[in-house]
């Protein structure tokens, strides 16, 4: 039982944490919603964490069934998700400097509605939990024990999601410390760097999905 518990926990955390990459997601979030108040930072961190854990939990439990119900294959999911991730990275590459320069003198007033909207899209989906994370979570969900769900397996999934959620919350909540350490120019450079990486990740997911689709095509 203990072996199954640790195996499930470590497998989920090791597979998903590098894909989620909370520090990079937090820095990108700074570029999307700069100059938030401490209360707004706490609210956004809590919302992004809740959204991310919910998406991962749904993907682990019923993701494969949802895709099967709608007739969506994993390659198509990667193609569509890769396009979204690449467009998010490209948009951030194009708008980061303009937004930063335009908000240095006056702080923007983020409304509760705009924060809730941005907390889900694009900060949670696809920046924090993207199609790569969802695809991996779905694949992990299909590897549940053949004899059915056990207490150890459920406890392992719960602990893994708690670890992932805590890492997301801490990085989102205290990302401004990194911003303060890097300074305005350093933060702008870091945001652009991670935006370019995000764009490349989107292209990689898109290419992988297209390659899988092309493998299924039989030419005469």
Shape designation: globular
By helix and strand content, what is the structural category? Answer: mainly alpha
Q: How many strand units?
A: 0
| Helix-strand topology string | HHHHHHHH
Low-confidence stretches: 100-107
Helix content range: over 70%
Indicate the proportion of strand residues. under 5%
Report the C-alpha radius of gyration, rounded: 19 Å
Helical stretch tally = 8
Please give the alpha-carbon distance between the first and last residues.
53 Å
* Total domain count: 1
Largest sheet composition: none
- What's the quaternary structure here? single chain
On the 0-100 scale, what is the average pLDDT? 82
Structure, explained:
The chain has 220 residues and is mainly α. The protein has one domain. It has eight helices and no strands. It has helices spanning 2-20, 22-32, 38-70, 74-102, 112-128, 131-141, 151-173, 175-215. The relative contact order is 0.23.
Please give a quick description of this structure.
The protein is mostly helical.
List keywords for this structure.
globular, 220 residues, mainly alpha
Topology:
Blueprint: H1 2-20, H2 22-32, H3 38-70, H4 74-102, H5 112-128, H6 131-141, H7 151-173, H8 175-215
Helix pairs in contact: 1-6, 1-7, 2-5, 2-7, 2-8, 3-5, 3-6, 3-7, 4-8
